[in-house]
Amino acid sequence: MEHIAFTEVTEEADMADHFDANSFLKGLDAIFDAHEQAKKAEPYLLQGLTDAENAHDDAGQLTVLNEIMGFYRSQSRHDDNQWMVQRALELASRMGIEGTEAWTTTLINAATSMRAAGRYDQAEDLYRQALDSALKTYDPTDRRLAALHNNLSILYSETKRLDKSEAELREALRILESSSPNANEDLDVASTHTNLALTLLAEDKTEGAAAHAKKALEIYRDGHLEHSAHYASALAGYAQVCYHTSLFVDAVDAYRHALAVIEECYGTDNDYWRVTESNLNDAIKAARELGMSVPDENPYAGGNAERPADTSALGATPAVATGPAADTPVSAANSLLEDEQAAKADIAATLDRKPMTGLQLAKAYWEAYGKPLIEEKYPEYKGRIAAGLVGHGSECYGFDDEISQDHDFGPGFCLWLTAEDYAKIGEQLQADYEALPQTFEGYGPREQTARAQGAGRRVGVFEIGQFFTSITGYPEAPAEDAPHEWLMLDEATLAAATNGQIFTDPLGRFSKVRQGFKLMPQDVQVSLISRRLGMIAQAGQYNLPRMLKRGDGAAAWLSIGEFVKATSSLVFLLNNPVSVGYLPYYKWSFAALRKLSRRIATVLGDVPEQLETVMRLGSAACYGGAGFGEGGKGAAPAAAKINETVEHICAEIVKTLNREGLTTSSETFLEWQRPYVEEHIESADPALRSL
């Protein structure tokens, strides 16, 4: 087993009574090496967690929790694992390790646990957070990044989003091939080709599936990796493609070869053997029903597993079998490159428009036309140009739907260049971008409103600094010692600068600038928390009940609005923008809050629903309920419920401030919490403090 021991520099590190993470991991390895994990692993893990807690070693606890997550996942103990996942995320957040490899690793382990438990929405959100973190903590060619894309692909496959599964696998393959000293003999590359083949097969893209299945076997052969246990998966994947394309004799041969490898590596008393044997029997039956000749004996049995499989059959696409002679193949593309070119031609001929979000459409359009444009016309810049979709527009937040498609929607993506590269090729690249097909997958041409054209355009070619200047007024995030500049950037602006997706960023330049806007200085974040507490107190706890008593419905209505805005902002600030982003502009505030509330270990996760209750009752509280579905009962009951809900929210906020170490006071009128919170501001800059 491979483990990661997290480290943290603390005063306790010098104590004699401490938790030795490396010794703990060695002991765990010994249990697994002795195959005693069924009886001894859980007691050992739980004792290790207790020892780390007693030593006040947060890093040690996180190490153990990551191991427990993996163990419980392997045992399918998903309910038990939920608590461990939540503890790990809360601990990691409390340790302040965001932006480190330890944070990325914890997110990946938590996401994989959620995926195994079938909690796909939570898993996807955690994987996305892990990807954002990985962009900062991993090199662009780090193979762990490829593994993360592979994990996301599995999630998308399990949730029947095959197009996204395919895209993640292609990105994983790109990373692996670019990082491998010899991609033609790389086992990880081979495994990804197999996964991609099966995904394409599920999408009925048989030519592409065949090409990738063949490539996987070629890598095992060229790298002399036929004795690897993974070779059986490649053979079984190849066999599945053969079966799907009616090459039943070839499927039988590959399944038999896979069984020989499984027997060599695992024996025959396992589910892997039994499933493969069942598939073999299905292939034999299908072949014989069509009168095809199938040998009775397995030619690979008896230690002959190294014999290479014949992959010539999938060099062509067979006709659908309709009789004994129907297995004669017809000519088709023989290479992956030809398969991708054919896929592009198929896109132009698509008859039915697939439902796609703006981000999905942008990425697919980039893959089909943007990437080939760079590779063919600007090969020397291939490793320098970033692509993605970030900025203004509901699609950049992932909140778009069919209603959103009536304006500023259609095929398009962003290309981001350094100032040096933009000066050399920016103008010509923009012309080439504009020459790309205007329709794609049944969408387009892109209809752009006046505000999304010219200097305000949302897609096309941009110089990195100018792109961020157009959104924020700054080419890069303000300095940490310039808090007044940070305070002039409202959260909606910061949300627009840090949303969306980056499809590729080989230089990492764009990602670095984007991440800079996520890394709000701690003093600024605390100052904003204090300001939000003040507005929540003034609008919700003080003015709202007074305006309701006066019968000034309009003023009470506005007080509710200010209370809701300030509380919504506080929820994002307390969950840390580097992890969850910023509250977007009002139109999408509650879409963002609902999404945030579905995350594991979200701070104040139940507050968004309570805010909606306050807003829903506002009509009755402010205007007596007439015509608002409140039965004409008048304002009093609704007003009482709103005041009760506001105070309940404020009490939860105080508990959270105490738990996060921002206050030691239990005072629930939030204005009086501000001095305690502002004690944590280290800068002497008066702009950060309340009057």
TrEMBL record:
SMART domains: TPR. The keyword Hydrolase does not apply. InterPro entries: DUF4037 (IPR025117), TPR-like_helical_dom_sf (IPR011990), TPR_rpt (IPR019734). Keywords: Repeat, TPR repeat. This is DUF4037 domain-containing protein. Residues 295-317 are annotated as: Disordered. Residues 486-588 form the DUF4037 domain. It comes from the Bacteria. It comes from Bifidobacterium vespertilionis.
